[in-house]
Amino acid sequence: MIQTHRKETADTAPAGRWEPQIIAFCCNYCAYAAADLAGSKRMQYPVNVRIIHTPCTGKIEMEHILDAFEKGIDGILVAGCLEGGCHFLEGNLRARKRTGRIRDILDEIGVGAERLKMVNFSAAMAPTFVERVQEIVETVRALGPSPLRPSAKKESAGEP
pTM of this prediction? Predict the structure, then answer.
């Protein structure tokens, strides 16, 4: 079980301050293990990142990522094994190709490719995991809320 000390909680964030909602799809053998190690070492990363444990990044279909964006997620991190070190041989290479195609789609529809990032770790790279999570949060925070976020859709339609 991942236990981390997070920098802030929903209760401690200033009232009215928007914080991005981020999903991190983490492969079982490396990225999830790195996240777990970060928790064991009591390393901190932002509270607004939700980890989804996957068997392999190669099992993450384009629909999973696009559906998350459609539902208003502000950013996604796909985290897999080091290239050449995938426990399912080429799963992370397939995931890299998919994320590249999805980034192109995100740019075409005006969401922005910067909201999706693919990274690779070994199980021992807990500090790198924390750095990459912090980077995606900062990148998405600078971009602002996703234009697909339900509240953003209402505002653009002139609804309160």
Answer: 0.84
- Phi first, then psi: what are they for 30, rounded to 5°? -120, -65
Mean pLDDT of the region 73-83: 96
d(CA 148, CA 15): 23
pLDDT tens-digit series, residues 5-18? 444 444 335 556 89
- Among 130, 113, 112, CA closest to 49: 130
C-beta of residue 137 within 8 angstroms of C-beta of residue 146: no
Residue pair 12/6 in contact (Cβ under 8 Å)? The answer is no
State how many domains the chain has.
1
Cα 82 to Cα 28, 31, 68, 105, distances in angstroms: 13, 9, 25, 25
Tell me whether strands 75-81 and 22-27 are parallel, antiparallel or unpaired. Answer: parallel
d(CA 48, CA 64) in angstroms, rounded, equals: 19
CATH, residue 69: 3.40.50
**E runs forming strands in the chain:** 5-6, 22-27, 44-45, 49-54, 75-81, 116-121
Residue 105: domain span: 5-156
